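Quick start: what a row looks like.
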Amino acid sequence: MKTLLKKLLVPHHLEYLALDKDFLIQEISLKVQRFADSPEEVVAGNDVRIPFPELVGAEEILIEIFERRLPNFELKAIARVLGNGLQLYFDMYIVEFTDDDNYQRLIIFFEDVTDRMGLEQTLVQATNEMNILLTTLAATNNYVEKIISSMVEVLLVITASGKIKKVNQAAQDLFGYSESELVGQQIDALAAVGSSLQAVSQDPPQQSQTNTEVICRAKNGQKLTVSFSCTAISTDIKGIFEARAAVQDFVYIGRDVTDRQRARQRQIVQYVTTRILSASETIKKALAAILPAICDSLGWDTAELWMPEAGEKLLSETKRITAVLDPNLRCVASWTKRSVSIPKFAEFTEQMTCAFGEGLPGLIWASGSSQWIADVTESDSCLRREIAAQEGLHGAFGFPILGDYEQENSARSVLGVMIFFSREVQCFDEELLQTMATIGSQLGQFIKRKQAEIALRESEEQLRDLFENATDLIQSIGADGHFLYVNRAWRETLGYSEAEIAQMTVFDIIHPNSSQESLDILYQAIINKNVNENTLCPDSIRAIFITKHHEQILLEGSISCKFAEGSLVAVRAILRDITARKMAEDALAKSVSLLQATFDSTGDGILAIDSRGKIVTFNREFVEMWGIPNEVMALRDDAATIAFVLNQLKDPQAFQERIESLYEQPKAESYDLLEFQDGRFFERYSQPQRLGEKIIGRVWSYHDITERKQAEDALREEQEKSENLLLNILPKAIAERLKQNETTIAEYFPEVTVLFADIVGFTALSAVMNPIELVEILNQIFSGFDLLCERHGLEKIKTIGDAYMAVGGLPNPRADHADAIAKMALDMQAEIARFNASHNKYFSIRIGIHSGPVVAGVIGIKKFIYDLWGDTVNIASRMESQGLPWRIQVSETTYKLVADKYLFQERGIIEVKGKGEMKTYILLRQK
């Protein structure tokens, strides 16, 4: 047995026995007998089926295991009743074993499973009991669910973290979500922006049972006011460690109080509106206060007041009179919560107008009734829906401000429209619209009452302003002669104070030299008291009042008497200070006298014609200049005067046409020069005669400029001679600069072409020829050259003896300067040949050309000459002096500029004085 134990390494809690192929026991463990039905039979050599009857009938299985056709076999939960009455349970495992000596056996292992079987039975019993409890719990839950489902109030169960665990049907109906949509979501998902439902569960314990109103949002976007109470409940589920506190859930019970809240808001709006209207002094202040008050009371975000121009004027309380009022509505006032930013919407609103029936304001205006839009972004009647969508505005409502009943329209007039917007989609609230319609009527009554007050106040102010701001002196005198009222102009003109006026009578200030009519009416009314309602007052009076500073003021005006019950109560007068006018009239008479003297003494002929063509006035000089007889002037007819003078003029038709043209253009002013047959010249000026803004005639002025014209013509002729002489000496541009007082002119020209030409043999000829004849020949030749310069646009610089110098490219730069000089050179050869043929002479010409930069200008203060300086001039001179008769020698620089246009013959390298060796070319002809 020990040998098998060693080989098998059997665990200590197992017992075993070994069998041969005949099922006889070969070897046993120490305690294997306790598993046998007959322990005493468990001995070596006995058949194993005797102590273990469970193996009876299992022989084939044992043989298959022995023959290794079956790996093993198990018998589970075999029961034995022990002597002490206790139950023993064990499992039997059968396997085949072959030792090192190749000896084959069957090994049966036994495992005591009594304790495990006891546990399994206990578990089965506990499971049965649990099933009974679960059945009872399910019934209870079903009962609770029925109670929860039948609740009118909202029920929400949330975890400590704020997640929804349970909702009832009332909650689903109120918020519009299904149970699956709510469960697992945070409870604050039901709260509107700025509100929190989870915060209710975090209140102190003493407050957790109180009702808290929370603004919630339904699935459709509607805002709801719900009053919640919250109770914490323990789940009785502990964590792994018993010391950890039990987890708590929170039960929310809520009641929809939206209608109650809205009713309270409507009451607040009515109360606030009434209070504002009763406390506001002006319409503008009332409307400015009502807009934010309504928004705050109802929880809306922005408000607008729309009015036509007539209402806008009423709001601004302006007194300006407008001929045509704009019939369209415009936003005249608005208010927006500080927390709301809608700049684009506000800017668009400020710029837009609404016609009758156009947009939400125009629709309310046309219908005269309140309107509601749940979401303006989906409403065709809202002109601003796109901008509203960008700025996050949705709900809107508006109501009219109603005025008096209009018979012609059979409806009450609409004074204005109030519009309110919300960032939330707002469901239709008919009761709110009814409340706002009542407020609109209340506002209309307030406006009409204020209108009446304003009209009355304006009427009083206008009457008072009319008197106080009048420039006329207005006074009212009592029956005793004392002053009852004087206006500001009266006080300022006469200089008396209010206290002084109260103590004096009219007789204290009226001068005895006043008109008799004014004195008579005052004495009859105040002193004699013999005037009555039938007494006629003079239409106009003149009186002299004495000022505080003892000055005399001449007054002119009207006077009337006021009677009450047949008795005189006041003598009223409206007087105008004509002291300045009288002085002005006197001064005007003096001025007219002086003007007439000046008019007659002036050296110009003056003629004034009225708008009908009649002569108003003329002076003596006019008659003498034109030689018009007195009998013609006596006609005072402009046409007769014109007919008389026409034959004196060189161009009478132009004279007549100009006069007719000016009469057709009354506002025109004119100046022209008249030339007479006898050589005289007149300057003629004409301008309209104005009286204020009105044209009442035309004034003609004639000035004899014959002597001046003759002097100007002589001066002009001399100037032309001087100008031509100067242009023969200098280029025109240089001459103009000298005339502008430039003392020194020097300019740099980077690209020009210089030509020198010399008449070959002319110096020798001068020794044998008459000098006069010689100069005449040279003049003819150089005059031809001058014409060539003009033809080619070149500038002649000077002549030196029989040499001729010209340049191309200045004073006005040109790109083809070298080409122009080349043409000039060829034409100069042809000009010499022509001269020789026509005069039977044998002159030849030598020409040199070079291109490059020069400085050109005029220097000195006497005998001006336009000259050139620079190396280019020197080289051009050398090209001529070292050239050949009848040849045009050019430098390599010039050659490169025109080589593509002309044929050249290379002369080669020559020694140039002052420059050394230079390559030159002979210009032959154009290609």
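That is the whole record. Residues 239-245, 320-324 have pLDDT under 50 and may be disordered. The chain has 28 helices and 34 strands.
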